[in-house]
Structure to design on (550 residues):
């Protein structure tokens, strides 16, 4: 069968087996929507986590007898450690000023407190990385052994809470991903089974005319692949519309943490999703049209 | 063109073809007359490459189909225009789309030119009026004509037709017979299986050659192998036998 005939027959196939085309289209539309939402959610979670963890992750409090020169040396040493994004020296005066600002109307509580009441500290921001919580714990342990550092706040509680939330978000995301896979598998299974008898009868006609099994399945395969790919493309388009309307503004409002804006899925990922739908739909079409050779069927 | 040597076929416990030997030549209309259950359809399906013989040789041209691998059979079938007993039309497609399937499989013509060729074949058989009708809405006679048109489409060198006159009125029978004689005269090897004694008699009067099949055996056996070859008589002889409108015009 020539390419022109395959396309011609594929269009006929879509018309004759509308239910199959609809099942594949809707199934892969939902799969792309759920799968895309999972990927988008994972990206958002990753960026939020980076923003939160990339802030002041570890604070090293300096001993009272550490002078300004020694404090500057310590800051430089800490800034040079692997995995440390930045290290900032906070003097005792600055720490007190911050506390006053934090207390607001109740800052009178600090009246009479001397300038050296709060210790100087070095605030360390770690570079974003997947195992950042563990790295923060390791760094805190190392800092405690350095002379001149009196205490270290590793912010383990905050990291642990964040990790718990991210685990929950990841679990929900996995459920969404499983649903996306289920939609795809269901669509393939239904498309393969729907109107199977009718397709077999048609296959027998083509076989009697001299078509090979592979060639007689090509139009159904093309129709299936095109339906699934169009469905996936539609799902991604719907996801993009939702992203433009809701997701991006909501993300920006909820993350005043210095994180960059949430971008949509990369073109490579969306193209891969459509290509996967095309391949699965084509396989479903080929399986649905698969017939036995008449010479074998008669035995 | 077609030669069967000692062909046997068993379906379950029943021997449906028993040591069948026959030959059909190019340029000839060969009629296999058989009552129901005599093994006609089994024989025709073997000739068309749709079934395998359990024993014997099935030669189409210079190839023994019985010894071909399964993967090669589709290429044999492409050279055979086969009319199944049930017509085998695809429902939900129009009559002309069904005829076009023959071109689709053979890939000889792109879709649009193929439509014109399909239209010509339907017109020749007097079925052009129903060309755009859904195959599911056709009468049994119309379905028969459309299925026959599909077998004829693309001018295959071999035609194997199972009861082409079934469900047809006398006028359509005449048209079909004259068309088959024309196709044979053009050099095709036309093998017709029929249980319609009147149709077979008319075809024989018009120059066709009759072979009788009874209980899976060819009557007369080896004598039928000796076949006189030669051009078929003109179509008008057949048409005259049936008194078809085509004949009226020629006169």
């Amino acid at each position: 069968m020539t390419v022109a005939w395959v396309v011609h027959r594929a269009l006929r196939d879509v018309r004759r087996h509308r239910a199959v085309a609809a099942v594949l289209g809707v199934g892969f539309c939902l799969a792309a929507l759920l799968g895309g939402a999972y990927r988008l959610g994972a990206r958002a979670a990753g960026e939020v986590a980076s923003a939160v963890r990339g802030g002041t992750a570890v604070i090293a409090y300096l001993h009272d007898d550490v002078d300004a020169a020694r404090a500057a040396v310590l800051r430089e040493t800490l800034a040079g450690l692997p995995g440390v994004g930045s290290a900032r020296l906070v003097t005792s005066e600055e720490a007190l000023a911050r506390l006053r600002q934090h207390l607001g109307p109740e800052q009178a509580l600090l009246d009479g407190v001397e300038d050296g009441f709060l210790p100087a500290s070095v605030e360390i921001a770690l570079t974003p990385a997947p195992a950042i919580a563990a790295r923060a714990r390791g760094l805190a342990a190392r800092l405690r052994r350095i002379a001149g550092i009196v205490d270290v706040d590793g912010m383990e509680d905050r990291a642990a809470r964040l990790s718990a939330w991210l685990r929950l978000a990841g679990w929900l995301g996995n459920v969404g991903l499983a649903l996306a896979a289920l939609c795809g598998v269901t669509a393939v299974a239904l498309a393969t089974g729907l109107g199977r008898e009718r397709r077999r009868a048609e296959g027998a006609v083509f076989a009697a005319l001299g078509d090979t099994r592979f060639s007689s399945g090509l139009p159904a395969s093309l129709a299936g692949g095109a339906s699934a790919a169009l469905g996936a493309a539609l799902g991604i388009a719907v996801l993009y519309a939702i992203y433009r309307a809701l997701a991006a503004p909501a993300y920006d409002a909820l993350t005043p943490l210095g994180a960059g804006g949430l971008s949509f899925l990369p073109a490579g990922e969306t193209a891969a999703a459509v290509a996967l739908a095309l391949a699965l739909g084509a396989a479903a079409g080929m399986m649905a049209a698969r017939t036995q050779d008449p010479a074998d069927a008669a035995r | 063109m077609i030669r069967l040597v000692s062909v046997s076929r068993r379906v379950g416990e029943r021997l449906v073809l028993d040591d069948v030997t026959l030959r059909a030549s190019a340029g000839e209309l060969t009629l296999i007359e058989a009552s129901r259950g005599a093994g006609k359809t089994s024989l025709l399906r073997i000739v068309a490459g749709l079934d395998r013989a359990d024993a014997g040789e099935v030669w189409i041209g210079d190839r023994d189909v019985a010894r071909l691998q399964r993967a090669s059979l589709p290429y044999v079938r492409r050279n055979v225009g086969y009319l199944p007993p049930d017509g085998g039309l695809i429902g939900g497609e129009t009559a002309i789309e069904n005829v076009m399937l023959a071109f689709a499989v053979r890939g000889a013509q792109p879709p649009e030119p193929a439509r014109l060729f399909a239209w010509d074949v339907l017109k020749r058989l007097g079925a052009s009026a129903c060309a755009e009708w859904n195959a599911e809405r056709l009468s049994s006679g119309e379905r028969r004509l459309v299925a026959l048109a599909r077998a004829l489409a693309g001018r295959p060198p071999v035609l194997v037709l199972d009861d082409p006159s079934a469900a047809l009125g006398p006028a359509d029978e005449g048209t079909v017979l004259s068309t088959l004689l024309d196709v044979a005269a053009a050099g095709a090897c036309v093998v017709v299986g029929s249980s319609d004694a009147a149709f077979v008699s008319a075809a024989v009067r018009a120059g066709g050659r009759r072979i009788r099949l009874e209980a899976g055996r060819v009557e007369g056996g080896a004598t039928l192998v000796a076949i006189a070859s030669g051009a078929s008589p003109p179509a008008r002889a057949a048409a005259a036998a049936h008194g078809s409108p085509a004949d009226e015009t020629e006169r």
Q: What stands out?
A: The longest helix of chain B spans residues 170-185. Chain B touches chain A at residues 45, 48-52, 70-71, 73-80, 82, 84, 88-93, 97, 101-107, 110-111, 150 (CB under 8 Å). Chain B has nine helices and ten strands. Residues 87-156 of chain B form one domain.
